[in-house]
Design goal:
The chain has 232 residues and is α/β, with parallel strands linked by helices. The protein is 48% helix and 12% strand. A five-stranded parallel beta sheet has the order 2-1-3-4-5, sandwiched between helices. It starts with a helix and ends in a 13-residue tail after the last helix.
């Protein structure tokens, strides 16, 4: 495969949801995109793992509540096997497992009632490795689920000491749901500088991606449930 062909290759997506009509709706949206290809479907976590053993995919859209094996355990196993990136789908108001799924290694999450453009954007963002979650969704979910974190005040307290003051500031802004561009504007630096800080934060704290960094900020008390920023 040439470099040009590799760049043009569509993003291969697997849909995992126990409701066939939901999968059909997602497939209809994604099949209309020239740069996205749905390569398989599964009705639960067990089927998803079996499918992924024989089907190569870039991104999995993973429901949380499913029979036999839920999306949390399935996500954990996919990540442990260095499989495709996972985007968690949640109904938000009812699904209290979404936060745990993010901790299990999902690259992002979104609401099931999100529009087609948001769905496509989420797939492309996670596929690119950015692990970017919509700021408003980040704040709403974390504000709701942070209260369920066990021993949040005691966990990894010393880890923050490895960060410089500026790195700590960047992490706090990331936890508030701000994008690199917004953080750069807030701190009067370039986006490249923000990305450099972010890379050092992930390395020092041994975190996988931006989403884990947000979780870490809440677990350690660096960010508090209910915090907001009027610049977002």
């Amino acid at each position: 495969m040439t470099e040009a062909e590799d760049v043009a290759a569509p993003i291969r997506v697997v849909l995992v949801d126990d409701q066939e009509l939901v999968r059909a709706g997602f497939r209809m949206v994604l099949d209309a995109q020239p740069d996205i290809e749905v390569v398989g479907e599964a009705g639960d976590g067990v089927q998803a793992l079996e499918l992924l053993r024989s089907t190569w995919a870039d991104v999995v859209l993973m429901d949380v509540r499913m029979p036999r094996m839920d999306g949390i355990e399935a996500t954990r196993r996919v990540v442990a096997q260095s499989g495709p990136k996972v985007v968690i789908l949640t109904t938000f108001d009812l699904d209290e497992y979404a936060f745990a799924a993010i901790k299990a290694g999902a690259g992002g999450f979104m609401l099931k009632d999100a529009g087609p453009a948001q769905l496509i954007e989420a797939i492309k963002a996670v596929h690119s490795g950015d692990a970017v979650v919509a700021p408003s969704t980040t704040r709403r979910l974390l504000d709701r689920f942070a209260v369920h974190l066990p021993d949040a005040e005691q966990k990894a307290v010393g880890a923050l000491e490895s960060l410089t003051d500026r790195e700590g500031e960047v992490l706090r802004l990331v936890a508030r749901g701000m994008s690199n561009a917004e953080i750069a504007e807030r701190l009067f630096v370039s986006e490249a500088t923000v990305k450099t800080h972010m890379g050092r934060i992930l390395m020092k704290l041994n975190l996988r991606d931006r989403v884990q960094a947000v979780v870490f900020a809440y677990e350690t008390g660096l960010a508090k449930s209910g915090q907001s920023d009027n610049t977002v």
